[in-house]
Amino acid sequence: MLALLALSAGRVVALPVLVDGLWGEDLSGNPGNALQVRVSKLRRALGSAGAPSALVLTRPPRYLLDVDPHQVDALRSTDRVAAARGVADSDPVAAATLYREALSCWRGAAPGRVRRRPVGGAGVRPADGAPAGGP
Q1: Is the entire prediction scored with pTM above 0.90?
Q2: Using CA atoms in the order 41, 43, 45, 49, what is the torsion angle rounded to 10 degrees?
Q3: What's the confidence (pLDDT) of residue 74?
Q4: Per-residue pLDDT at 26
Q5: Which residues bind DNA (predicted)?
Q6: What sign does the CA torsion over 9, 11, 15, 21 have?
Q7: How far apart are CA 39 and CA 63, in angstroms?
Q8: Which helix (H) or strand (E) is 59 found in, with range?
Q9: Disulfide: which of 5, 7, 119, 133 matches 114 by Cβ 3.0-4.6 Å?
Q10: What is the mean pLDDT of the chain?
Q11: DSSP state, 58?
């Protein structure tokens, strides 16, 4: 859940997008209640880790992670790749620097439990067009 919210940092993620991203067709019962349980557990886990549990906010139509998108490695990396592509033809040295900055954003393995298909229709996709969830 944290990965799904982080990939849309600072933006509200609607209930159907979260439900689809977490369970797809595998959810039975009441998805709204199941999601509320997950949010409650996430807030407790954030608090236990020393982060403010208020990072996960409830906003219609559902939840958002209240952080600057540039605090999310995947989003910062995506921005750097897009910038590098924008200058690659005119300034290959600057592009190489931006690509190195993009690579430096990745620490550890990409989140393995994020569904590798588009989330909520248009989906969240890195600049290279690969599905969200890792390079």
Answers
A1: no
A2: 180
A3: 87
A4: 82
A5: 1-67
A6: negative
A7: 9
A8: strand 56-59
A9: 133
A10: 82
A11: E
Alpha-carbon distance of 102 to 107, in angstroms, equals 11
- Burial of residue 50, with CB atoms counted within 10 A of its CB: 0-12 exposed, 13-18 middle, 19 or more buried: exposed
Tokens matching residue 114: 């994020």
pLDDT of 122 strictly over 50: no
What are the helix (H) ranges across 2-135? Answer: 2-6, 15-23, 31-48, 73-87, 92-104
Instruction: Say whether the peptide bond before residue 131 is cis (omega within 30 degrees of 0).
Output: no
How is residue 12 annotated by DSSP? -
Which tokens belong to 58? 């409830």
Tokens of 81: 């790749």
Question: In one letter, which amino acid is 104?
Answer: S
| 3-state class (DSSP) for residue 24 | helix
Is residue 62 within 8 Å of residue 14, measured between CB atoms? yes
